[in-house]
Amino acid sequence: MYRRRNQRMERTERTERTERRERTERIQRIPGLLAGVLGFLLVLTGITASTAAAATAPGAGAEKRVFNGMQIIFRTDTPNAFCTIGAVGTDAYQRKIAISAGHCVNGKEYADRDIPENIQPVYDRNDIASGPIGHLRYFKDPEGSMVGHATKDYMIIELEQTVVLSSQGPHLKQTGVLEVPGGQPSPNALSPAPNSERLLGAALFNNNELVVSGQLGVNYGRVTNAAQGIYQSWAPHKGGDSGGPAIWHVPGSAYPSSANGFQAAGPWAGITKAIALGVPPYVYTSSANILADLRARNAAQPGVYGAGFQVTTNP
User: Which CATH number fits domain 172-311: 2.40.10, 1.10.238, 1.10.10, 3.30.2020?
Assistant: First the structure.
């Protein structure tokens, strides 16, 4: 009798242990499922794994400012996988917009279309505690490229209405959108192309220069190639700077230096794209390519997020 009782007790204990283990496994699987459904932005290129931990600052009651050069993340549990904002402003529909690199996210289910659903939040990497600064609204599928689509490597983020836009980044003051009267039209442009959709010259006697900001500080360099609206320049960057700001150096204006606190001002000219095989190896998607594609998409289907983008004039 005692043997049967012990056997029943052992079976009961085994059953309880099995049920506890199954409950634990179900709980452990939930974060992975959410990551698969919501975290479709798995890193391809441009996002870097940094050894520096992202700071979290209290955001309660503080005015949240968003600016060019801000590092952004897409999941709070992966703060070392980040990209960078290239420009902030408003679109033709009075929405607050930030622009970054399209290759920072992926997922064919969501690529190449506006995403009105608040599926993917975007956070300030250095102020996660303040909550999302906005949501992903569009990104271009890279179409097999590891460094983003050839001419349309950009992302549109709709910012929260409560954030304050600023044209002043850590190093760069953006003074509007670059216009190039008489320049070659972007390959993405409808005809006729406005001046904001025309490209900087890169011939031997052109001295157009980009000034860029990122983890290497602020740097500048001559544009040596502008084929297909992708600027090749000596201005360097590194992984994680993808999507970050590039302005045109206005001839006669001050270069960044210790004398001016390593600051520069000029019109928004593009965003950081990749380090490629070539000399120089640093490439940037032109603002002309981005604005042209937004206008073309909006002509086909009005209401596109980011269409008619203008850099904020807020200080």
Answer: 2.40.10
Q: Do residues 166 and 315 lie in contact, with contact meaning Cβ atoms separated by under 8 Å?
A: yes
CB 64 within 8 A of CB 162: yes
Rounded Cα–Cα distance for residues 51 and 56 (Å)? 16
Residue type, 96: K
Separation CA 156–CA 302 (nearest Å): 16
Report which residue type is found at 108: K
Digit-coded pLDDT (tens) for 181-232: 999 999 999 999 999 999 999 998 899 999 999 999 999 999 999 999 999 9
Structure tokens at 127: 């102020």
Q: What span, in angstroms and rounded, lies between the C-alpha atoms of 56 and 63?
A: 15
The 10 Å Cβ neighbour count of residue 45 is 19
Q: What tokens appear for 191 in the block?
A: 């005809």
Q: The domain 48-165 is classified under which CATH number: 3.40.50.1010, 2.40.10.10, 2.60.120.650, 3.30.70.2190? A: 2.40.10.10
Q: Would you say the C-alpha torsion 282, 176, 171, 201 has a positive or negative sign?
A: positive
List strand residue ranges (DSSP E) for 61-113, in order. Answer: 65-67, 71-73, 81-84, 87-90, 96-100
Give dist(CA 91, CA 134) in Å, integer: 15
The token pair at 305 is 């997020």
Calpha distance 188→294 (Å, rounded)? 9
Residues 196, 180: Cα–Cα separation, whole Å? 6
126: closest CA among 184, 197, 65? 65
Instruction: Read off the pTM.
Output: 0.82
